[in-house]
């Protein structure tokens, strides 16, 4: 059955208010079938209260409420209600692996039933009100709420309380579900629910009525995402049909100039204007009604012996020194200068250009960038090549250009919404790999909360083992079960939830980048580490050394993450 064939249920959900939301979260968290998840969302958006629907869109788009109480207090209040010894609570927590779920399971079953189920919006707006309230006021609200909820409702309530609410639902699925309940095209919905709107003051009609207008000039467009190219490039047809670019290692973003204001958005829909003050210089150079897609990258300007200058990217690790800082100092601006490498045009003169072919968008983009002529706004170059074999050779130069590989974009392609097959491909180079031995293990979260699936790995430094990274993905369920059994049989020491294990299991660790770090015993930090494969063919004596890591750092890394 295709998505277009799925229709909302005709009978109203048996639950209402917060109960209906908890039921939705349970279905989304336990179902393995896309159509079941989509049907649950359609049913919810068909029958839920309008204010609750706005909050669900906000939550599923990453707009989580701020934490209003510490984990320690939640534990204390649960122990107080249940009269459990604290050691037993801790053991339960280590077994379950999730604080919200542990509390939901330990609290006594309630015999109370609510005659008018409070809404999702009620609880979330209470969180906002209670944020500055006295601890006793927060305690009474939270403990009273616990005692009127069932186990599933408490679990969701606790996840919202702690700011750790996450759900495995894509933005595309949310959009598709909404498209079944409102008279709007999916692309329009995706654009409407993006941006800097407040679920407290925004109504469902403001967001998704047919004639809704928005005064949010900062609103970005949904990003067009590429699929990984696993086949040979020859399978794409004639090379003349494709535009090749570097796949930059930075933060995907959009620069927006509207109403004589400039905004910077990340792909994760985070408004990052204040984090990159150097971009404000572009406000006077760019025309109004403009949206540019590109990459936020640290850069350097070099001058050749002939006196010509060139701008080139620097490693992603330098960008990390700027991420997460509320205030950027002059020193940081000098040490990690940031440019925007532009590669697509989404809006020009307040007109949506996404349906125009890439070739046409590129010509106008080049015109805009050349006219602005500023070092902080660079045109991401198109790579010149004549054949697929020639492009394969160019791809081998990716790391020399601080790129992750190549992007291949069909010249006739429109700028679509989300991840679509066929027009945009990412053709990444192979990751770095290193063989290491597992030395620590910890239980996972969610469905893996009873298995040891979070591991710490070490390399050799002469006769000692030096921990250098953690990883918790890359194995099959069967392999995770096998490693879990090994950990339980071969634990040497226990430190809270962490087990020290016999250093016998060897794994190949893959990662995308490496940088120096004085926060790690090894002196290095890896980017996107994960388990590439279990090396059952190797012994701990055959693993890589700390010197191997430092050689990688010398060749491909940066001097410091600090």
Automatic annotation (TrEMBL):
Pfam families: DNA_ligase_A_C, DNA_ligase_A_M, DNA_ligase_A_N. InterPro entries: ATP-dep_DNA_ligase, ATP_dep_DNA_lig_pp_1105_fam, DNA_ligase_ATP-dep_C, DNA_ligase_ATP-dep_cent, DNA_ligase_ATP-dep_CS, DNA_ligase_ATP-dep_N, DNA_ligase_N_sf, NA-bd_OB-fold. Its EC number is 6.5.1.1. CDD domains: Adenylation_DNA_ligase_Bac1 (cd07897), OBF_DNA_ligase_Arch_LigB (cd07972). NCBIfam families: DNA_lig_bact (TIGR04120), PRK09247.1 (NF006701). It catalyses: ATP + (deoxyribonucleotide)n-3'-hydroxyl + 5'-phospho-(deoxyribonucleotide)m = (deoxyribonucleotide)n+m + AMP + diphosphate. It comes from Danxiaibacter flavus. This is DNA ligase (ATP). The keyword Glycosyltransferase does not apply. Keywords: ATP-binding, Cell cycle, Cell division, DNA damage, DNA recombination, DNA repair, DNA replication, Ligase, Magnesium, Metal-binding, Nucleotide-binding. One of its GO terms (molecular function) is DNA ligase (ATP) activity. Residues 331-461 form the ATP-dependent DNA ligase family profile domain.
């Amino acid at each position: 059955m295709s998505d277009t064939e799925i229709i909302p249920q005709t009978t109203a959900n048996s639950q209402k208010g917060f109960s209906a939301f908890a039921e939705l979260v349970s279905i989304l968290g336990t179902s393995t079938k896309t159509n079941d998840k989509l049907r649950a969302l359609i049913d919810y958006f068909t029958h839920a209260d309008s204010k609750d629907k706005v909050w669900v869109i906000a939550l599923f788009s990453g707009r989580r409420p701020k934490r209003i109480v510490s984990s320690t207090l939640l534990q204390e209040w649960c122990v107080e209600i249940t009269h459990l010894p604290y050691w037993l609570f801790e053991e339960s927590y280590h077994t379950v692996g999730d604080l919200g779920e542990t509390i939901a399971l330990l609290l006594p079953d309630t015999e109370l039933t609510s005659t008018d189920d409070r809404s999702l919006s009620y609880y979330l707006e209470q969180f906002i009100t209670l944020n500055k309230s006295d601890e006793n006021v927060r305690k009474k609200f939270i403990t009273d709420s616990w005692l009127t909820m069932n186990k599933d409702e408490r679990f969701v309530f606790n996840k919202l309380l702690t700011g750790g609410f996450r759900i495995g639902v894509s933005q595309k699925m949310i959009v598709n579900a909404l498209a079944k309940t409102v008279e709007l095209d999916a692309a329009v919905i995706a654009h409407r629910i993006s941006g800097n709107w407040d679920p407290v003051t925004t109504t469902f009609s403001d967001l998704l009525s047919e004639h809704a207008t928005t005064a949010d000039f900062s609103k970005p467009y949904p990003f067009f995402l590429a699929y990984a190219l696993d086949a040979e490039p020859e399978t794409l047809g004639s090379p003349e049909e494709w535009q090749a670019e570097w796949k930059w290692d930075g933060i995907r973003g959009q620069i927006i100039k509207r109403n004589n204001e400039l905004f910077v958005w990340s792909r994760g829909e985070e408004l990052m204007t204040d984090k990159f003050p150097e971009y404000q210089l572009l406000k006077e150079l760019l025309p109004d009604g403009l949206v540019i897609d590109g990459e936020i990258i640290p850069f350097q300007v070099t001058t050749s012996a002939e006196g010509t200058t060139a701008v080139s990217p620097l490693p992603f690790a330098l960008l990390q020194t700027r991420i997460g800082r509320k205030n950027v100092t002059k020193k940081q601006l000098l040490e990690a200068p940031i440019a925007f490498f532009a590669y697509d045009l989404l809006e020009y003169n307040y007109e949506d250009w996404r349906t125009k072919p890439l070739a046409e968008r590129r010509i106008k983009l080049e015109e805009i960038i050349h006219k602005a002529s500023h070092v902080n706004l660079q045109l991401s170059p198109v790579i010149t090549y004549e054949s697929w074999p020639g492009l394969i050779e160019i791809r081998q130069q990716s790391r020399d250009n601080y790129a992750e590989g190549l992007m291949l974009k069909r010249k006739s392609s429109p700028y679509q919404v989300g991840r679509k097959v066929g027009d945009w491909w990412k053709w990444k180079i192979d990751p770095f790999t290193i063989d290491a031995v597992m030395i620590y293990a910890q239980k996972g979260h969610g469905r893996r909360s009873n298995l040891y699936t979070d591991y710490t790995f070490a390399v050799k430094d002469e006769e000692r083992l030096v921990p250098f990274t953690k990883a918790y993905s890359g194995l099959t369920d069967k392999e995770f079960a096998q490693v879990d059994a090994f950990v339980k049989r071969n634990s040497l020491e226990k430190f809270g939830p962490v087990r020290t294990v016999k250093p016998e299991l060897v794994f190949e660790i893959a990662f995308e980048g490496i940088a120096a770090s004085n926060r790690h015993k090894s002196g290095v930090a890896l980017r996107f580490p994960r388990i590439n494969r279990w090396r059952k063919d190797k012994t701990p004596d055959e693993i890589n050394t700390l010197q191997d890591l430092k050689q990688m750092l010398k060749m491909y890394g940066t001097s410091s993450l600090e």
